[in-house]
Write a structure and sequence with these properties.
10 strands, isomerase activity, IolE/XylAMocC-like, Xyl_isomerase-like_sf, 275 residues, alpha/beta, TIM Barrel, Sugar phosphate isomerase/epimerase, eight-stranded parallel beta barrel
Length: 275
């Protein structure tokens, strides 16, 4: 297994700061969500047609991989034109990811009503949109990975979604806090989704439930991180354990200069291959 961190945890960093932080702290890769305070990465010069070759060269010079490219793509809208724009965004990010040597882009399921006919209609619409996006990104040599998030935190919820548009293209990004805080045992999530899991988000918390959670430095909360890593190791997972420190959304939590090095130090004690 390899270590990466999401730039959600250092949203104001430049690309050089991101790469030097990764190199200095022994990370294998980074996951791009923010850069220079901007979340619309496709609009930045670093990811333009002219800028991409230089950006790839900077990754290569730093010896750091792009573990995953994060998007805000989701297909909840009933508006056909809006869903078409989301599909095109998935294609755009897949092309950027491919140019930078990354195999994955992150997509969302989004929120659906708790019950009633609208719930079924929305879930079906999301499933069909994700299936189309996954096929489109596959054409670029990139896998779209659905994060366990929003209304699709557990394997049961994801399974229902997939039943509306069965496909083999869509991967899963397992954000373990979200499945675990909904009461789903780690083994159950893996048994149901393991064949699709391509990427992992990890963060610690000391107080969590289906409706809320807090943020703790790694190892200072009560998430069963050691158990989780042990499960992945037994099952032969060789992908990234990506630290998602939500600094951009929660500015009151510890600074990236504290949290990002601390995660790497803690995880190296748990994952032999990263020592």
């Amino acid at each position: 297994m390899k270590l990466s961190f999401s730039t959600l945890g250092c949203p104001k960093y430049t690309l050089d700061q991101v790469l030097s932080t990764a190199s200095d702290n022994g990370y294998d890769g980074v996951e791009l969500r923010f850069l220079r305070g901007e979340v619309g990465l496709h609009e930045l010069e670093e990811f333009s047609a002219q800028g991409l070759p230089r950006t790839r060269a900077r990754f290569e010079q730093a010896g750091v991989e792009l573990a995953c490219l994060d998007t805000s793509v989701r297909f909840t809208s009933p508006d056909k034109d809006e869903r078409a724009q989301q599909l095109e965004a998935a294609r755009t990010y897949a092309r950027i990811a491919a140019e930078l040597g990354s195999r994955y882009i992150r997509v969302f399921g989004g929120a659906v009503p708790d019950e009633g006919p609208e719930r079924t209609e929305t879930t079906k619409r999301i499933a069909e949109g994700l299936a189309e996006a996954a096929a489109a990104t596959r054409a670029e040599g990139v896998t779209a990975v659905l994060e366990t998030h929003d209304s699709f935190c557990t394997s049961t919820q994801v399974g229902e979604l997939l039943s509306y548009a069965p496909n083999d293209d869509l991967g899963i990004l397992w954000d373990v806090l979200h499945s675990y805080r909904h009461g789903e045992p780690l083994e159950q999530t893996w048994q149901a989704l393991g064949e699709r899991i391509r990427h992992v988000h990890l963060k610690d918390s000391g107080s969590y439930s289906p409706t809320d959670f807090d943020f703790r430095l790694t190892g200072e909360g009560t998430m069963p991180i050691g158990e989780f890593v042990g499960l992945l190791d037994r099952e032969g997972y060789t992908g990234y354990l990506s630290f998602e420190w939500e600094k951009a959304w929660h500015p009151e939590i510890e600074e990236p200069e504290v949290a990002i090095p601390q995660y790497a130090e803690y995880m190296r004690k748990l994952v032999p291959a990263t020592r």
